[in-house]
Structure formats: C-alpha cells, structure tokens
Specification:
Helix content is 3%, strand content 42%. The protein is mainly β.
Length: 370
C-alpha cells in the first residue's frame, strides 16, 4: 500500500488543434491533444527549456519546481510548451501531468496547393503579408479560425487561407494495445508497466475501444510493491503480481465518487483477511475476528480513500497473495498498484463494467505475452 503525493495545480486548457512536426512531415510525429483540462507541473528543482525536442538543442531558459506549463503537444519524451511567448521543449521525465486527457488526434498532413500562397499576420486578406509558401510545401498548423489556418511560419505566427491548403489524415501511430491478442471482449484496458521487475516506479495508461478502434485515454505515473513486480507472487513478498486480471469492487472511505462499478464504502470494522490458514483468506470481512482469522489488513486507512479490487488469486490459494488493490499512493506499496487520488478517481469514473475492463501488469519487455 502506498502513500500518494498530490501536487498543487493550476489548470491549463489545451487548444483544439492538430499539430504536425515543423517543416516536412516525417520522422518523429508529435501527438496533439484535443481540448482537455490537464495540469502540467514541474517536478525537478530546475528544468531547462530547450529550443528543440532533445538535449542537443540549445537552452533558451528554465522553469522551476511547482511551476505549471502551457503544453501544446508531446513529441517522444518531450513536451512542446509555450515559454514566454516562444516555443520551447522540456523533458517529460520531470513534468507531472494530472487529469484525464482526451486521446491524441490523428496525425494530419497540411500541404499547400497554390503555386504561391501569402502568409498573413492575421486571419483575413486585410492583414499584411509576412511571407509566402509554395505548392507542395508542408505546413505546421496550430489551429483553424473560420477559413484560415493558423501556422508556425519560420518561428512566427502566421495565417494562410484554407482554400489553398489540403489537409489529409494519415494513419494514427499504433498503440501498444493494438498488438495484444488476449483481450477477448475487453473494451477498456488499464496497462501498468515498469522498466524491469525490480523497480517500484510504474507507468499507468488507460485505453478504450471506440467504434472498433483503440484510443488512449490517460497516462499517469504510479508505483508498485516496494520490491517491484513478482515473477511468482507470495504472501508478504512486497511485490505486485504481473498478469491480466478483471476489475472487482470499487471502494472508498467516502461516498461513491461517480464510478459505475459496484461500490462499497469502507467502515471502521472492515478488514481484508491475509491469514493463509483462514477459510476466509483473501476476502473482505468485518471485525471482530472471533477466531475466524489471526491476521487481517485494516481497510479504514488513507491509502484506501478510493480504489478498486484487482481480482488476483480468486481461487484463494493459501500463500499466493491477498488484498491486491489499485489505490491511492505515491511512494511504494506492499503489493498493490497506486497513483494519485486525482488519477484514481478519474479512472474510477471512467471504468464501465459493461465494457469488460481488465488490468494488465507487466514489465515492458514482456508485453508480447498479451
């Protein structure tokens, strides 16, 4: 079980736009976000802002711990941001994103169709021309206003008439769940990954199938058991089980936050039996024990402000592990998976039992098992 760090936050509203990479389309493509309310907060004491998405680019400034960022898109492991009116890039390793994001929009290619097309300072022919683009040239489009595209033009903001620009959607980048073969009728997936078995840090992603296509919904940082993932979990080993599991009862110490899952409010007498010798092993019970068990985990604790049961060891095999939950926490757990309270609540609201949700927990190197 883990304790959760909840960051203070200001809210940044992202623009509804498709943002291809600068210049010609190719190589790494940026992911542009549809309108969503997401907080991006710096976690490093000081974080360099660079002129491009990589450490080889020059430093144009810096941001400090706790500062909120205006994020436009993500390119690999770098966030493209608005930095004092300029475009900058920061490493996503030192930025915490909180809130439910909408899925990335499909990549779109914008191509000039006129032999020469004026780039203007505003969205209209009454604005001055600041340059031009030529037929076949690829444009970095920020947004659309009426019949005008707002573009990035040599580091400046410009506008071109959409009558002379052809926009054509390209294939969306393949998601990790697209290659999974064990999902059956699941239409919602929570994917929990770690770099290896021994790390307690995890990446949590959620995916939903919409009109037959998988869409990514959320990405968050999380934590595992103190000793990481378990190859073969045992009671008390401080490791989180790998595998694919269904989602059980949602719970919390407060009223239902809006989940569609069956919800149970925790009371002071609620415990989860972890006594391998008890006939009630790996079940939710109420005190007093009256000889029915010798060991049980108290449920009325802050880590369980909100969460849900991961249906692990449903056969209740003695010693195989018990009380495996998805709950609130940011340090490490005794074998559960945890993230911030905000993210737990967001996931609870998103989960829909009619979509047969599952949770997959695995080191990245073993995702081909699923």
């Amino acid at each position: 079980m883990k304790k959760l760090m909840v960051g203070m936050a200001l809210t940044a509203t992202l623009a509804t736009a498709v943002t291809p990479g600068f210049g010609s389309i190719g190589g790494n493509q940026e992911k542009a976000y549809a309108a969503a309310t997401v907080t991006y907060k710096v976690t490093a004491s000081k974080l360099n802002v660079r002129s491009g998405a990589g450490t080889t680019y020059g430093i144009i400034g810096s941001v400090v711990k706790g500062q909120t960022l205006s994020v436009m898109s993500k390119s690999g492991s770098w966030y493209k941001i608005n930095y004092n009116g300029r475009t900058g890039y920061v490493s996503s390793d030192y930025v915490q994103a909180s809130g439910t994001t909408t899925p990335p929009a499909e990549s779109t290619m914008y191509t000039v169709t006129a032999s020469t097309l004026n780039v203007r300072s505003g969205a209209g022919t009454n604005y001055a021309s600041i340059g031009s683009v030529t037929k076949g040239q690829k444009l970095s489009v920020v947004s659309k206003s009426g019949s005008w595209y707002k573009i990035n033009y040599n580091g400046r903001t410009g506008y071109v008439s959409s009558d002379y620009v052809q926009a054509s959607a390209t294939t969306s980048p393949k998601l990790v769940v697209d290659s999974f073969k064990t999902l059956g009728n699941a239409q919602q997936v929570i994917l929990v990954t770690a770099d290896n078995y021994d790390t307690k840090s995890a990446k949590i992603q959620t995916f939903e199938k919409v009109d037959g296509k998988w869409k990514q919904v959320l990405t968050a940082n999380g934590v595992l058991g103190q000793k990481g993932f378990a190859l073969s979990k045992k009671e008390g080993d401080m490791e989180s089980p790998t595998g694919k599991y269904t989602i059980g009862t949602a719970f919390g110490r407060y009223a239902n936050p809006g989940t569609k899952l069956p919800y149970r409010k925790i009371t002071a007498n609620d415990v989860w039996v972890d006594d391998s010798k008890s006939s009630l092993y790996n079940t939710w019970q109420q005190k007093p024990a009256n000889g029915r068990w010798t060991s049980a985990e108290n449920m009325d604790i802050p880590a369980y402000d909100y969460g849900f049961v991961i249906n692990y060891n449903e056969s209740r095999t003695p010693g195989k592990g018990s009380a495996i939950f998805f709950h609130v926490g940011t340090n490490y757990t005794a074998g559960c998976t945890a993230t911030s309270k905000e993210q737990v609540v967001s996931i609870l609201k998103w989960l829909n039992p009619e979509k047969n949700p599952v949770i997959i927990q695995s080191p990245v190197s073993e995702l081909d098992k699923y």
